[in-house]
Write a structure and sequence with these properties.
The structure holds 3 protein chains of 3 kinds. Chain A is mostly beta strands. Chain A has a domain of 68 residues: Alpha-Beta Plaits. A two-stranded antiparallel ribbon of chain A has the order 1-6. Chain A has a two-stranded antiparallel ribbon with strand order 2-5. Chain A has a two-stranded antiparallel sheet with strand order 3-4. The longest helix of chain A is centred in the middle third of the chain and has 5 residues. Chain A is elongated and about 60 Å long. In chain B, the strands form 3 sheets. In chain B, strands 3-2-4-5-7-6-13 form a 7-stranded mixed beta sheet, with helices on both faces. Chain B is globular. The longest helix of chain C has 22 residues. The chains are: A mainly beta, B alpha/beta, C alpha/beta. Chains B and C meet through helix 3, helix 5 and strand 9 of B and strand 1, strand 2, helix 3 and helix 5 of C. The complex binds thiamine diphosphate, iron/sulfur cluster (3 copies) and magnesium ion.
Chain lengths: 107, 401, 317
């Protein structure tokens, strides 16, 4: 499972300390998914409920202006990072405008 | 050249417990977390007085158990505080889980233990059953035999524990009651900052600091765990030199030193006695009588139980015809059941030295050991030696049939 | 009147993340949601002490950590004691000028129900009595999940766990859930609250308050567990909300002795809606459910009387 080099006792930090904060970012949990959430940017109201609940976190706020087909303007968008999304579906359940599609992953 | 602070000493009548408290004050400890237990309690009481009088600037955590005492000490040490705790017997057992964690996290905590028997039946009296159970926890274990040595050892303990070659916790043990509550003259520093060059405040171990966030106490899978344990093996090996250096340096600065093994007359002795703690005093006095009769007797006191000074003991053994080891603890269910005797036998085996090692169990639950006992043990060993009798089982000296 | 809450909408929630992805919590584990939001409130000047349990093992498999703040795990039962040591040490080091006395460092103890209700209770009580300025966050998934779903003092009555199986005679847990937050409140510490991630702003305001008070604080958070409660992972937050909508879980706080319900429920749902979604209650008969409903009704009465008005409304659906 581990991608890290198996260091010897001399090189390893004493007592199993981990010196690099948040380095689990190098562990991609996206392959846990069987279904994936897909945010429909035109339907999304930017309510950020999905961003609040995602336990990974695998939903990011992207600071880029977006204009929907119906002409609504937003300063940012919300996107799923599939490197980490485990496909729990909590965001889908929380999305009131039903702006997240739930699509089976191809195997 | 380092400037050496001139220390002025004052001579005080102190029990070993009070000497320990004095050393904690003079080590400028930051956090003390402890729980009362006989015969340790007066250590913590005296430290509380120092804090209450502003003589020691430290936080005292009045924890609700020894388990929490060691846990709080771990927390305090993990943010870089110089940390102390003290306990005995049941308290030390309650801490046991955390002893492994303190050393595993490589935290330089110092703890004193007024060695006491373990229940059941309940005994508040002295022996070394509690201390010996710490054997496999990767703590450095120093056993003092006088109040003065206990004072000096606590100060040395911080130098040892906080040395980057070591970064392991240190336990300073001494006899419950026989030492903890007996007054002796002790030289203590007039001023509390006398040791600040000897044990400078400079936490170099891993600490929790928001400016440099690290994770401590992670989970290690089989592919990682072993290496961390081996690091401890190496640190323990290093500790042998570091303990010696710390003692030498202490001697240079303050004109008191103890070595790792205190020995006397071991050169060309017929029989060398080996023991630890306050019993050494009794042994010394008893042997005088025998020596007057011309007996060649050596004496050795182990001051360091972990790491175990195997080579030094092998050297001592080589000079004698036989060793007699007086242990104040029993490791149950094995023929040679004196913990130190067992270590010595394996040390000799490793060096390929053939010597008779006679293991005696004495002073259990503070059963008195008198001069007469020592002389009788000596006579018994001489007999066994003369008849080339190899000891098959420890002798439980003085146990009633 | 209550001061204006700090977090009111999602837009008040800081963007910075201090929990990194790549951790191993189950898909849909609401502990991830709770911890992530907790750290957003606390920010970088924080030290976390974590008890053994799901959060601890899932976030720190060496050589990886999901923590961007200093974090320590020592053992299962001593989180409050370790946090006490940290707090006292920082005090001492500040007094001696070894760290900047002006620096405010949050100390958070984070433990599961097993680590709090049961094995860690003594250390917790000691910490509260001594008055250490630590916020203790209990994430309550109502069983020992890390060891494979065994009952704890926090497991509710009737719930199936691997040690309270549904057999011919015994059907799930026999005893009731221990009222841990009330027991903690009896220590008369400055701040005690219950919260759940279904009401994120309420929960985050409680974390904020807990970190602000001078002295110990305790926030008890309900944490739906997809694996142990046996529900579809997508329903974690739905269930958290349902717990409050049915009044099985009431979000309250006690600030300097002042009790208030922070999430009022004008129209209460029947408990069956909560049970229905969870496999751990699938053996409940209608009678069992009605019995529980009656217990909840009584509890609602008690709370409304305590508050002095109807904060939890009548059963409507
Ligand atoms: C002294 C001790 N006893 C037992 C265990 C085994 N153990 C580890 S985690 C755990 C259960 C944790 O339950 P809880 O606190 O509810 O946290 P969760 O895993 O549910 O998040 C147990 C029993 C242990 N680590 N230490
Ligand atoms: S499916 Fe789950 S993990 Fe994936 S983005 Fe939605 S909430 Fe996050
Ligand atoms: S919950 Fe739905 S509407 Fe709200 S931000 Fe997420 S995708 Fe958009
Ligand atoms: S078992 Fe439950 S609490 Fe543990 S990680 Fe899975 S969902 Fe979370
Ligand atoms: Mg649990």
């Amino acid at each position: 499972m581990t991608q890290e080099k198996l260091l010897g006792w001399k090189e390893l930090p004493l007592g199993g300390a981990i010196l690099e904060p948040g380095n689990s970012e190098r562990r991609y949990t996206g392959d846990w998914r069987t279904f994936k959430p897909v945010i429909l940017q035109d339907k999304c109201t930017r309510c950020l409920r999905c961003w609040i609940v995602c336990p990974e976190p695998a939903i990011y706020i992207i600071d880029e202006p977006y204009t929907t087909k119906s002409g609504r303007q937003f300063k940012f968008s919300v996107e799923v990072n599939y490197d980490y999304c485990k496909g729990c579906g909590m965001c889908v359940e929380e999305c009131e405008p039903k702006a997240i599609d739930w699509i089976e992953e191809e195997k | 050249m380092e400037s050496v602070l001139k220390v002025t000493w004052k001579r005080l009548p102190l029990s070993t417990n009070f000497a320990i408290a004095q050393a904690v004050k003079d080590s400028d400890v930051d956090v003390v977390s402890a729980y009362p237990i006989t015969p340790q309690t007066t250590v913590v009481e005296r430290i509380s007085e120092f804090i209450a009088n502003g003589e020691l600037k430290a936080e005292m955590i009045h924890v609700e158990s020894e388990h929490s005492a060691m846990s709080a000490a771990i927390g305090a040490s993990a943010v870089g505080a110089r940390t102390f705790t003290a306990t005995a017997a049941q308290g030390l057992e309650l801490m046991h889980e955390l002893l492994h964690i303190a050393s595993g996290l490589r935290l330089p905590i110092v703890m004193s233990v007024a060695a006491r028997a373990l229940s059941a039946p309940l005994s508040i009296w002295g022996d070394y059953s509690d201390v010996m159970n710490v054997r496999d926890t990767s703590w450095i274990i120093i056993i003092a035999s006088t109040a003065q040595e206990a004072y000096d050892s606590v100060i040395q303990a911080y130098r040892i524990a906080e040395d980057p070659r070591v970064f392991l916790p240190v336990l300073v043990a001494y006899d419950g009651y026989a030492m903890s509550h007996t007054y002796e003259p002790v030289y203590v520093s007039e001023k509390s900052d006398a040791f600040k060059d000897y044990i400078p405040k400079n936490p170099r171990w891993y600490t929790l600091n928001p400016e440099k966030p690290i994770t401590m106490g992670a989970m290690a899978s089989p592919e990682w765990f072993y290496e961390f344990k081996y690091q401890q093996v190496v640190a323990m090996k290093n500790a042998l030199d570091v303990v010696k250096e710390a003692d030498d340096e202490y001697g240079k600065r303050y004109e008191r030193k103890y070595g790792i093994i205190e020995e006397e007359g071991v050169e060309g002795s017929d029989i060398t006695f080996v023991t630890y703690g306050g019993l050494y005093g009794t042994l010394k006095e008893s042997i005088e009588e025998l020596r007057k009769k011309g007996e060649q007797i050596g004496l050795a006191r182990i001051r360091l139980f972990r790491p175990f000074p195997s080579e030094m003991l092998a050297d001592i053994a080589e000079k004698a015809k036989a060793l007699v080891v007086l242990d104040r603890a029993i490791t149950f269910g094995v023929n040679i059941s004196g913990p130190v005797a067992r270590e010595i036998i394996s040390s000799l085996y490793a060096r390929g030295i053939e010597r008779n090692v006679y293991s005696f169990i004495v002073g259990i639950g503070q059963r008195t050991v008198t001069e007469k006992d020592i002389i009788a043990i000596y006579e018994k060993v001489k007999e066994m030696l003369a008849s080339h009798e190899r000891q098959k089982e420890s002798i439980y000296w003085g146990v009633r049939e | 009147m209550m001061a204006k809450p700090y977090f009111r909408t999602v837009y008040d929630v800081p963007r910075e993340e201090y929990l990194a992805p790549g951790h191993g919590l189950c898909a849909g584990c609401t502990a991830g949601t709770i911890v992530k939001l907790l750290l957003k409130v606390a920010g970088p000047n924080t030290i976390v002490v974590n008890a053994t349990g799901c959060v601890e093992v899932s976030t720190t498999p060496f050589p990886y950590t999901s923590w961007k703040v200093p974090w320590i795990h020592v053992a299962f039962e001593n989180t409050a004691a370790v946090a006490s040591g940290i707090e006292s040490a920082l005090k001492a080091l500040k007094a001696k000028g070894m760290i900047d006395p002006a620096k405010r460092i949050n100390i958070i103890a984070l433990a599961g129900d097993g680590g709090t209700y049961d094995i860690g209770f003594q250390a917790l009580s000691g910490m509260l009595e001594r008055g250490h300025k630590v916020m203790y966050v209990l994430y309550d998934n109502e069983a020992y999940m890390n060891t494979g779903i065994q009952r704890s003092g926090g497991t509710p009555e009737y719930a199936w766990t691997t040690t309270t199986p549904v057999g011919k005679i015994l059907k799930g847990k026999v005893q009731q859930k221990k009222p841990i937050a009330e027991i903690v409140a009896a220590h008369r510490i400055p701040y005690v609250a219950t919260a759940n991630p279904g009401y994120f702003a309420d929960m985050m305001n409680k974390f904020k308050k807990g970190l602000e008070v001078e002295g110990p604080s305790f926030v008890h958070v309900l944490q739906p567990c997809t694996t142990g409660w046996k529900f579809d992972p997508r329903y974690g937050i739905v269930l958290a909300r349902l717990a409050t909508e049915t009044a099985l879980w009431i979000n309250w706080q006690q600030e300097e002795g002042q009790f208030s319900v922070t999430v009022s429920v004008p129209r209460r749902k029947h408990v069956k809606h909560y049970f229905e979604l969870q496999g751990r209650f699938s053996h409940l008969t209608e009678e069992d459910i009605e019995k529980i409903q009656k217990e909840v009704d009584l509890e609602v009465d008690r709370i409304n009387k305590l508050v002095g008005r109807t904060v939890i409304g009548p059963l409507v659906e």
